[in-house]
Amino acid sequence: MMAGRRDRLMKNASNNNMSINPRSRIIIAIGIGILMGCIFAFLYPHGFFHTNSPLSTTDHFSNSQTSTLDCEPDERANILKADIMGLKEKNAELRKQVRELQEKLRLAEQGKDTAQKQFLALGAQPKAGPFGTVKSLRTNPTVAPDESVNPRLAKILQEVAVRKELIVVLANAYVREMLELQVSTIKKADIPNYLVVALDEEIAEYCKSNNVSVYMRDPDKGVDSIGRNGGNHAVSGLKFRILREFLQLGYSVLLSDVDIIFLQNPFDHLYRDSDVESMTDGHNNMTAYGYNDVFDELAMGWARYAHTMRIWVYNSGFFFLRPTIPSIELLDRVADRLAKQNLWDQAVFNEELFFPSHPEYEGLHASRRTMDFYSFMNSKVLFKTVRKDANLKKFKPVIIHINYHPDKLPRMKAVLEYYVDGKQDALDSFPDGSQ
Predict the structure, then answer these.
(1) Among 120, 144, 140, which residue's Cα sits nearest to residue 249?
(2) Which residues form the Nucleotide-diphospho-sugar transferase domain (predicted)?
(3) What stretches of 172-275 adopt beta strand conformation (E)?
(4) Which of 143, 126, 123 is nearest to 134 (CA)?
(5) Which of 75, 147, 212, 320 is the most buried (most CB within 10 A)?
(6) Which residues does 224 contact at the CB level (< 8 Å), separation at least 6?
(7) Do strands 252-256 and 165-171 pair parallel, antiparallel, or not at all (unpaired)?
């Protein structure tokens, strides 16, 4: 019986083994392995062989870090200082290079500009002649006329100008009486090329009704407000903006203030060899044409005497401009400064003409000529010198400018009475100055 039972069990086991395929056996083995691994990991978290090496490594790192932290501030400070010094030196070197490059660029541009100007003015390079025969260029070439600047004005100038030259006067209603007196002298002297720039409607109507050539600009808010309401100096400053178009159109302009009497045609007495010909505020040869003024500074001992060059200013109320680049640049410079600052136009006019180039400033390269101070006479010369000299009283000036005296209209009338009507005592009642 026992033998029969054992046979049955072995038979069943044999049947079970036959029923499990190889793939199932592999899965079972993997599962058993994972289970045993989890059990050992739980029972021996540090492994079968425990060591102190991780702890010792951590302690070593901690000690090393503490040591590094102890010396780090001083070392880092020194490193940063060295870096800063290096950067400063590098920055200084870069700044030096920038300055050198800027200077080279400035010199290159200046040289290019100068070369262009010389080429335009001189053309082919000349050779120097024998001693005593060399003369520098005084007369700059004129600009090419550009009628697109102001076609309406161009048409007027074609009718008024003589040989592309004309007198230009700015006037508003405040100076109408002086303008009327001036116009009468223009007609007596038979000067055809005379144009009034009317700054308001009243002057425009006066000119039209008296057969005087007139030009009224297109509306311009900045100019019109001054032109209609401005006083003598304010109106005088406008001319530097207005005259530019005349030069761009290729015309030479003889600018005149209204407080001027014309006794002869001024165009018969111009040289036309310079960019600017101007009357002077000087009253004798020294003040009009320049002189060496010695300044005495006793404290300097041996070098106590300092020589200075002086000349009395040009009068910005009567000057002749040829249509050249320097003349236009002069107008631009003066107009720009007057627009930005409250300055006297005559002072700015002279500063731009006479101040030389120096560091951070490039002077105006314009040729200039001082008019004969007896022919183009100011009122100081007339009332302080000429009227008291028997010989000078016989001389007939080209124009007389009542620029030194505020009582302009009565003195203008007296000048007419003396030089035109022949009234010998017409000038006698006036003081030398304005007292």
Answers:
(1) 144
(2) 191-409
(3) 194-198, 214-215, 252-256, 260-262
(4) 126
(5) 320
(6) 199
(7) parallel
